[in-house]
Amino acid sequence: TQLLEQSPQFLSIQEGENLTVYCNSSSVFSSLQWYRQEPGEGPVLLVTVVTGGEVKKLKRLTFQFGDARKDSSLHITAAQPGDTGLYLCAGVNRENTGNQFYFGTGTSLTVIP
Amino acid sequence: SQTIHQWPATLVQPVGSPLSLECTVEGTSNPNLYWYRQAAGRGLQLLFYSVGIGQISSEVPQNLSASRPQDRQFILSSKKLLLSDSGFYLCAWRPQAVNYGYTFGSGTRLTVV
Predict the structure, then answer these.
(1) Three-class DSSP category at B51
(2) Contact A99 B32 (CB under 8 A)
(3) Is the preceding peptide bond at B69 cis, omega within 30 degrees of 0?
(4) Are B21 and B9 in contact (CB under 8 A)?
(5) Between A and B, how many residue pairs show a Cβ–Cβ distance under 8 A?
């Protein structure tokens, strides 16, 4: 099993603040994805990054894949209460027979109005 | 469009009773299918994945088993539930291509009492 560590585990911030969530591993990944999950529901895909150094933006969210493809970050600008949820990173290695992604430990974000 | 159905949404079962959770996918063929378990507010643990009918791979030794009797049907079972089987179970599918994201079902909250 390839371990993905996310930090921080919990984050509580005021509306309008900026934040960054990190996803780190000792393994190299072919690609990495970020998901957001709300309580009682399945995770929903936000983005997939595949190239080392790649940066993708989704409105106020900026995702970066590390140059060595071992880590990633998610930066949220001017957080809003609707950003509240559990953020999960997930990585895949092409050597995995079932192409299964291994999920990180999760970051629980609460944005206070 | 593709959809994934997972049921039941919640389940309370006594220790030692059997379990059957079902997941079906519509609108696609030959998907990769997955069962994950999630502890409260944490990351997802891969339990089983399947790349085709009758092909099941297990990631973690446990009290559970999986079957894929049809192309778009994935079943998670147990003959005798343990207290430690309690959790949030998620079914997911994704195309065979390596970089596509998962589409998750809405999950089953299992409580073993």
Answers:
(1) strand
(2) yes
(3) no
(4) no
(5) 75
Interface of B with A (CB under 8 A): 32, 34, 36, 41-46, 49-51, 57, 59, 90, 92, 94, 96-107, 109
Find chain A residues with C-beta within 8 A of B94's C-beta: 99
Q: Percent of chain A beyond pLDDT 90?
A: 76
Q: Are B64 and B56 in contact (CB under 8 A)?
A: no
**Gap between the Cα atoms of A75 and B97, Å rounded:** 28
Chain B residues with beta carbon closer than 8 angstroms to that of A85: none
Contacts of B45 in chain A (CB under 8 A): 103
Asked if pLDDT for residue B24 goes beyond 80, the answer is yes
The residue type of A63 is F
Question: Which candidate from A42, A94, A100 shows the least CB-CB separation from B46?
Answer: A100
More confident residue, B29 or A76: A76
CA distance A53 to B7: 40
Tokens of B46: 């891969």
What is the model's pLDDT at position A2? Answer: 55
**How far is the C-alpha of B96 from the C-alpha of A69, rounded, in Å?**
22
Instruction: Tell me which DSSP letter residue B102 carries.
Output: P
3-state secondary structure chain A: CCCCEEECCEEEEECCCCEEEEEECCCCCCEEEEEEECCCCCCEEEEEECCCCCEEEECCEEEEECCCCCEEEEEECCCCHHHCEEEEEEEECCCCCCCCCEECCCEEEEEEC
Distance between CA atoms of residues B4 and B15, nearest Å: 29
